[in-house]
């Protein structure tokens, strides 16, 4: 049987991580959004924040659940398919991931219980605190996992003994050269992703003439954040690119599509990179602009792929195009930000229908940008798992067979297809229902008939007997 | 200073795994009992609501177990997981179907039965695969150099399958005792009737494992049945029997929380017994915890944080359990 376990294991990792990242990309921003709404409710006492927060918390619960279960798969996959990688890198990556579990996962999972089920059981401020803890947990989680991933991109603070990595300086390991840039780039991407979802759903509600009060507040807040983050993200992205130029020249050359080393390099807008022929077909480029962007000089030196031995080059085509897709989506975001500012100044934000339709269209834009960004950085790291130290083909578990990996890949594929379909269906249904209690806030029973537990609630006919707002006794 | 860092770390990893077994044990147990609830979907809603606010935190101990192994004993992580490829795959898939059922089941209308099934089958399959993993672990692994070199089916044996079934009964016992504590009325009565039967089955399985392992494994036999070990270790089975007796009595007397506490104690004793049998191997029968350990610089870096963080985690976990204390009554619970 000529099933290559390395190819299949990579496919499995790419599939499971791509599926997984969609949920953190959404929930990191959503957790912060919910915490802000809870805070505004606590301090203003306006019910609209309360119902808005309840609405988005339901969406959060479904997304977070899928994020957790698909994340557990990741923490085991290092061992099952990539045991050599685990053995060689475990001394360094193990503690980083362990810190993610003990600082972030427990915080999120435990306080999520209070956030989802505890509203009637704890005082308002404790509930707000629980929302903050969940949000803080998601940011900590991103901190450690980005640190671990960045170590794989730009390793530092280690030494090699007996073919394995040993830590020498944990500060250098955690804050390795690419980590700060990549952390902020990712967290901002997550906030943008959530903002576009919130903006898109609110715009949809406005177009349908439903939940006006809620939709206006949510739309205004989301677009406000987009107006700040979309341009800021381009700046941070540029800094990330400069950092890549310094530490991962091969990846950067692939991103730019440069085969030759030269001064005053052009900026290649469009091309069809050909790995075999070591050249681009159908190239369209702007002279000198590449050097200007990357080195901030007209005649700056850019190293090309031909300086790197062929076996150490990443696959150029996917890196080149993923990057362009990401940047293109980023520019669309920038455009949305600019138009939103203009409409805001003219006080036409809530009734410019073409803009609202555009926002509905851009609802998933953040997810796509995140995926293309990760494709760029991860495929760009190839052929290494730990850049310059450990090759991908040497990271695989020696014991596994192509058949075994294929079987598990198919199983994951089917499972995720079912889960994703069901989850999307339930989330869309939540979006359709909108913020509960928005129609008739005076009568809490009015919004209930559609709710799964409403029957039981009505039969009960009385507030549940539980201690109210006295957790400190 | 004869402070053994690796031993400390093994203690932490063992604690994480044990916490997982206890905590996810009872909520998986609730899933195992799910379709048999006497009052149908109404009871199932209640059962699910007893664990809905806390299951996520419980399952995080499983990730800590994996992460502690990865950080403290990377060699064990990189040998055990390829060796247990298929049972781990089964466990992960089962946990996915079970985990999403919490959210999906309460959101579904006509398809609710699907997520009821998903919750039940996922709970049973996850538990069964954990039992298989434990069984395979007791039987040991084929290692050459730093790699697992056995077959992808190496874990498959009558013994491992038997431990898998035993685990289902064990978690069901934990689940029934948890429900005794958290519910009232006919559902609680049903659990009072069920718990003694499950207890009997668990004792039977513990007995079989306790006889099977020393009969087939010379090291285990030497550990338990040589003088003076037999003297020091004899309290383990004796206390186990005593705890089982106390538990039977507590259920008959319809105590509320005591059966759950005693069920946890039974698990602790069984876990301790296994630790005594396998000590000091982290990859039985050849690699010890010291041989698989990561270097002190890795362990110290992590230990500094864990000393503060694990008590903090335990504290806020306790806070959550305290917030959700008391009985869960029909119809209350899922309020979002």
What would you note in describing this structure?
Chain A has 473 residues and is mainly alpha-helical. Chain A is built from 14 helices and 8 strands. Chain A has a two-stranded antiparallel ribbon with strand order 1-2. In chain A, strands 3-6 form a two-stranded antiparallel sheet. In chain A, helix 2 (47-80) runs antiparallel to helix 3 (83-117), helix 2 (47-80) packs antiparallel against helix 13 (402-433) and helix 7 (212-247) runs antiparallel to helix 10 (316-345). Chain B is mostly helical and 336 residues long. Helices cover 78% and strands 3% of the residues of chain B. Chain B has helices at 5-33, 40-51, 55-72, 74-83, 85-107, 112-139, 158-182, 185-216, 218-225, 229-233, 235-252, 258-278, 289-292, 296-323; strands at 143-144, 147-148, 281-283, 287-288. In chain B, helix 7 runs antiparallel to helix 8 (185-216) and helix 11 packs antiparallel against helix 12. The longest helix of chain B is centred in the middle third of the chain and has 32 residues, at 185-216. Chain B is globular and about 55 Å long.
Shape of chain B: globular
- Taken as a percent bin, the fraction of beta residues of chain A is 5-15%
From the spread of the alpha carbons, the general shape of chain A counts as: globular
**Main sheet record of chain B:** 2 strands, antiparallel
- The class by helix and strand makeup of chain A works out as mainly alpha
State the low-pLDDT regions of chain A, or none. 438-473
Question: How large is the radius of gyration of chain B?
Answer: 20 Å
How would you classify the quaternary structure? Answer: heterodimer
As a whole number of angstroms, the C-alpha radius of gyration of chain A is: 24 Å
Helicity range of chain B: over 70%
Report the total helices of chain B.
14
Number of helices of chain A: 14
Question: Are there runs of chain B of 5+ residues with pLDDT below 50, and where?
Answer: none
Tell me the span between the first and last alpha carbons of chain B: 54 Å
Tally of strands of chain A:
8
């Amino acid at each position: 049987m000529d099933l290559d376990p390395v190819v299949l294991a990579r496919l499995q990792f790419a599939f499971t991580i791509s599926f997984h990242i969609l949920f953190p990309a959404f929930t990191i921003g959503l957790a912060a959004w919910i915490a802000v709404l809870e805070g505004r409710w606590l301090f203003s006492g306006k019910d609209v924040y309360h119902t808005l927060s309840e609405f988005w918390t339901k969406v959060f619960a479904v997304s977070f659940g899928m994020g957790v279960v698909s994340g557990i798969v990741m923490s085991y996959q290092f061992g099952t398919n990539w045991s050599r990688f685990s053995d060689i890198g475990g001394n360094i990556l193990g503690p980083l991931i362990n810190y993610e579990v003990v600082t972030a996962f427990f915080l999120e999972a435990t306080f999520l219980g209070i956030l989802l089920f505890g509203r009637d059981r704890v005082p308002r401020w404790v509930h707000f605190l629980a929302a903050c803890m969940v949000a803080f947990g998601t940011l900590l989680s991103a901190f450690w996992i980005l640190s671990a991933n960045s170590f794989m991109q730009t390793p530092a603070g280690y030494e090699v003994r007996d073919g394995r990595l040993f830590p020498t300086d944990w500060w250098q390991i955690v804050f390795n050269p690419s980590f700060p840039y990549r952390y902020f780039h990712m967290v901002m991407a997550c906030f943008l992703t959530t903002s576009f979802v919130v903006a898109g759903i609110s715009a949809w509600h406005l177009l349908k003439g439903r939940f006006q009060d809620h939709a206006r507040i949510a739309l205004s807040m989301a677009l406000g954040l987009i107006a700040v983050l979309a341009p800021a993200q381009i700046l941070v992205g540029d800094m990330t690119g400069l950092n890549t130029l310094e530490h991962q020249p091969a990846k950067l050359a692939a991103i730019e599509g440069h085969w030759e080393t030269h001064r005053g390099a052009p900026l290649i807008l469009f091309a069809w990179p050909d790995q075999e022929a070591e050249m681009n077909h159908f190239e369209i480029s702007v002279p000198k602009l590449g050097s200007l962007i990357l080195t901030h000089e007209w005649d700056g030196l850019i190293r090309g792929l031909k300086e790197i031995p062929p076996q150490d080059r990443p696959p150029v085509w996917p890196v080149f195009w993923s990057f362009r897709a990401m940047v293109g989506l980023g520019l669309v975001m920038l455009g949305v930000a600019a138009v939103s500012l203009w409409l805001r100044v003219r006080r036409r934000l809530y009734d410019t229908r073409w803009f609202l339709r555009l926002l509905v269209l851009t609802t998933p834009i953040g997810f796509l940008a995140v995926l293309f960004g990760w494709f760029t950085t991860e495929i760009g790291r190839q052929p290494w798992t730990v850049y310059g130290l450990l090759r991908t083909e040497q990271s695989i578990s020696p014991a596994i067979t192509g058949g075994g990996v294929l079987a598990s890949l198919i199983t994951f594929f089917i499972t995720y297809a079912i889960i994703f379909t069901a989850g999307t269906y339930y989330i869309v249904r939540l979006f359709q229902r909108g913020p509960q209690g928005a129609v008739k806030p005076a009568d809490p029973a009015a919004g209930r008939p559609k709710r799964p537990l409403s029957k039981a609630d009505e039969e009960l006919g009385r507030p549940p007997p539980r201690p109210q707002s006295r957790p400190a006794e | 200073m004869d402070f053994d860092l690796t031993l400390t770390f093994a203690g932490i990893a063992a604690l994480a795994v044990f916490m997982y077994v206890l905590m996810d044990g009872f909520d998986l147990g609730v899933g195992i009992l799910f379709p048999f609830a006497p009052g149908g979907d109404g009871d199932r809603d209640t059962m699910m609501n007893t664990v809905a606010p806390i299951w996520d935190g419980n399952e995080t101990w499983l990730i800590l177990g994996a992460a502690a192994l990865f950080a403290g004993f990377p060699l064990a992580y990189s040998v055990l997981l390829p060796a247990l490829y298929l049972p781990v795959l089964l466990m992960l898939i089962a946990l996915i179907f079970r985990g999403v059922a919490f959210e999906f089941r309460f959101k579904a209308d006509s398809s609710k039965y699907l997520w009821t099934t998903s919750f039940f089958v996922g709970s049973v399959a996850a538990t069964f695969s954990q039992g298989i993993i434990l069984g395979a672990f007791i039987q040991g692994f084929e290692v050459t150099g730093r790699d697992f070199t056995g077959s992808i089916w190496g874990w498959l044996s009558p013994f491992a399958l038997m431990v898998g079934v035993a685990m289902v009964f064990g978690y069901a016992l934990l689940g029934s005792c948890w429900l005794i504590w958290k519910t009232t009325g006919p559902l609680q009565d049903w659990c009072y009737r069920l718990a003694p039967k499950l207890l009997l089955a668990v004792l039977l399985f513990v007995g079989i494992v306790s006889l099977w392992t020393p009969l087939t494994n010379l090291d285990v036999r030497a550990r338990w049945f040589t003088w003076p070990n037999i003297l020091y270790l004899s309290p383990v089975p004796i206390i186990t029997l005593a705890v089982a007796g106390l538990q039977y009595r507590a259920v008959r007397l319809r105590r509320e929380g005591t059966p759950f506490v005693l069920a946890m104690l039974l698990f602790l004793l069984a876990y301790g017994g296994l630790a005594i049998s396998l000590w000091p191997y982290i990859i039985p029968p050849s690699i010890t915890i010291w041989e698989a350990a990561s270097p002190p610089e890795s362990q110290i870096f992590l230990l500094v944080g864990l000393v503060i963080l694990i008590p903090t985690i335990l504290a806020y976990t306790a806070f959550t359990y305290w917030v959700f204390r008391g009985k869960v009554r029909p119809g209350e619970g899922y309020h979002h």
